[in-house]
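so my prof wants the structure for this chain in the tokens format not the other one, which i didnt know existed until like an hour ago. anyway here's the sequence
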Amino acid sequence: MQYDPIKDRFGRLVAGRTWATRLFFFFLQMVFLRSWYVRRELRRAVQRAGSRLRDGERCIDVLDAGTGFGQFSWWMAQRFERLCITAVDVKEDYLQEARRRFAHARLDKRVTFKVDDLVALQADGPFDLILSVDVMEHIEEDERVFSHFFRVLRPEGQVIINTPSDQGGSDVHTSDGESFISEHVRDGYARADLRAKLERAGFHVDRIDYTYGMAGSLAWKLAVKVPMRMLGAWFGWVVLLPLWYAAALPVVLVLHAVDVKLTNKTGTGLIAVAHRPPSS
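here's what i got, hopefully its the right format
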């Protein structure tokens, strides 16, 4: 299904309203399990980067690579005072609205938005941390992107990549299955393949963990798949979403907590953490 048009309509609904943006971003952080994993890794990465710097030495430079609505830059800017965030995307309309959104919330001094294509990345950094959330499955030339990430990252800097896996990611469970999100150029990564590509770019891979195990996959169906199917058929169903989530959300949150707590032997998502070796 066409996922972006539905996402764009929600973006327009909250445009220009700070209170609506706060509510929308909070909702996204709750409903999407990826946010639970990404926020956990961000806390660890910011603590690690901060431990290498003296107090007041400089800010921790972060690249939000493929920022979209900017929800992760928003979350980081509100919680970590020491960050200087560069948020890039190829969509100028997204960035224009993000600039207005952050200015209204007085977060614009913490985050700089720039149009940039990750395949031909113009940002030169250097950065202490790079975040890429559900972006790489949209890019055919992924190894070029990883090479750019390595180039602009400081020695010992980290990259966090969240992406679907080949174990049912994008809701594809057979070799000829159709992706739930038609904008994807790949359904997901094999864990070994993602590791190999990062290592070829020069990274030392700290870990690649499965996300969206049995509990998380069920939560995704309740929190994302069913509502998106409804809205894809007719956007007017949006008026019923509060009733749907009132019933489903308590179950979804429990399933999210279980998925994050467990070590998943397999899952439909991957989260990778890697760093640039100090001598490179």
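also thought this was worth mentioning. The first strand starts at residue 60 and ends at 65.
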